[in-house]
Amino acid sequence: MEEISNPQDSGNPFGNRLPVEQVAQGIEKVRQEIKKTIVGQDEMIELMIVGLLSKGHILLDGVPGIAKTLTSKLFAKSVNTGYSRIQFTPDLMPADVLGTSVFNSGNFEFKKGPIFSNIILIDEINRAPAKTQSAMFEVMEERQVTMDGHTYPMAQPFMVLATQNPIDSEGTYRLPEAQLDRFLFKIHLDLPNLEEEILILKNRGSETENEPNVVPAISGEDVLNFQKWTSVIRVEEKLIQYIATIVVKTRNHPSLYAGASPRASLAIFRASQAFAVIEGRDFVIPEDIKRAAIPAMRHRIILNPEKEMEGISPDLVLEGIIQSIEIPR
């Protein structure tokens, strides 16, 4: 297999081969730091890491009490960079998130809101109304905020980790499709099994401290380098066609009212590169694409009303689509 040029300058110490082992080692340190406190939820942790490498945003969906917020905080603090938490509530206004102009000494001065950080935890994102949700569109997609005719770029790296309770919970709103489409992954979280529940009691039941101690495993500069190297992981032409075929097939599937957008194709492409680098490879294989496809599309498709009434899940439809397409050899 041919080697890929490093996106860094030509004088870098790695020559012309990607340092995927260095990325994998750094990511494993992050994983182990989180696992000191969190029991189970291995898939959630891996997908959050993939989101970081892919420059994507993550939506965590599950009932209260299953460590969505705690895991997000530990993940953010395992990276030595800026961190901000925003609690979404029904009375939250866009200015509370983005910032506002303040009159000071005869001039208006823009006071930045809590969104101006590196890793942003938005807790219970679906408790805020549509007006506040719309304020997130520009910053999530374009990584900038426009206020009073001025554009303020976000510091890099920039990532949104959002938690939400199921939409049938009291006091929740359904997120707009345009906002859902801006999340790389939607991660469903299940309740722990018996063995995991026992471990949680053993590990956390006698704790007196509310805040677990987290040691940053990688720096913000490490993250930027990892993202650059991930973005040039090789994806062969036949695998690009495989991604496109999966996504296009959702657009004319009889069980779906609306299929996935082109953002879904890009999400699967970038996430499959991240899965490859985590495994220590500088090339993508079909299994990487299959692992990325469902979490990247489950929030981007809409079931027909008949299928919803039958209790069919988006994941089940997507699994059928993936299985119906021949795997490239």
Automatic annotation (TrEMBL):
The ATPase AAA-3 domain extends over 57-185
Entry keyword set: ATP-binding, Nucleotide-binding
The GO terms this record gives for MF are: ATP binding; ATP hydrolysis activity
Domain (ChlI/MoxR AAA lid): give its ranges. Answer: 249-316
> Does the entry feature the keyword Nucleotide-binding, yes or no?
yes
What family does this belong to?
A: Belongs to the MoxR family.
Name of the featured protein: Methanol dehydrogenase regulatory protein
Which lineage ranks, top first, belong to the organism behind this chain? Bacteria, Pseudomonadati, Bacteroidota, Cytophagia, Cytophagales
